[in-house]
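lol ok so funny story. i was supposed to be doing the assay writeup but got distracted and ended up predicting the structure for this chain instead. priorities right. anyway since i did it might as well share w the group, maybe its usefull for someone
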Amino acid sequence: MKLQVLHRTHFKYASPVVDSFNEARLLPINDNRQKRHSHILRVTPATRLSHYRDLYNNYVQLFDILTPHRELIVTATSTVTTSNEKQLAPDARPATLQSFGSTPEFNHCYDFMQGTSYVDLSPEIWRLALDITDAETDAWQTARKIMHYIFKEFRYESGSTHVHTHTNEVLESRQGVCQDFAHVMIGLCRSLKIPTRYVSGYLYNGPADDLLGSQASHAWVEVLLPKHGWIGLDPTNNQQVDGRYVKIGVGRDFSDVTPISGSYRGTGKQKMAVEVLVTLLDADASR
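and the output, tada:
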């Protein structure tokens, strides 16, 4: 599928601010499932951009605005072609949980096995993961059971949480948005020693309008399976990632792939509006 993504973030400040330093993680990646054709980042007020690669190889664009301003508008426009091929069949059983430690892929997965400021790996999380998976021994089927549990037992409720909501709060309320469900799935999978990482990106909903989380930046997870690599699962919509998903970056949790982050000097009163539009350019596009 050939898709175009428009992501616009508009900040308004109650009084002029200065010394605004920002990072943007808005560039779609290139990998074996996604090819980036174009990307333009526009910033108003106009400024010079630079970039670097972070610890997880995400592309980060930097900019600063030192002069007084009352508005900041950041607009990213990107075009990609994605693969609609599923990496694994739903009923596949490629690797047992017991086999994980003996495979070379896991030598570089320490960060994706730990708790974070968003993700808890408490004994209670581990106990819940065991109950959900019901003695399942295959890693892929274990991850799918966890995904299905979150989709079935949690309610998608826009505005019910905020960007700093912890997994424990989501588990208690049983509601949230895609970011929250990704964090819950990460905690459950990591508690069973399955390397799992947070993925930031977008979701093309299409004319059916039946998928959740497509009105803004979307989040899902990837689990690492021996000989198959990282495979995407979306607990918000209970499905394996396909050509409708546009991938921006990966990390331990949301804090590693925040679309726009930064600081400034001035008033603490601000309003932020985010607009995301994913458009289908060619349903049959191939590489």
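The helical segments are 123-133, 139-153, 167-173, 178-191. The mean pLDDT is 92.
back to the writeup now i swear
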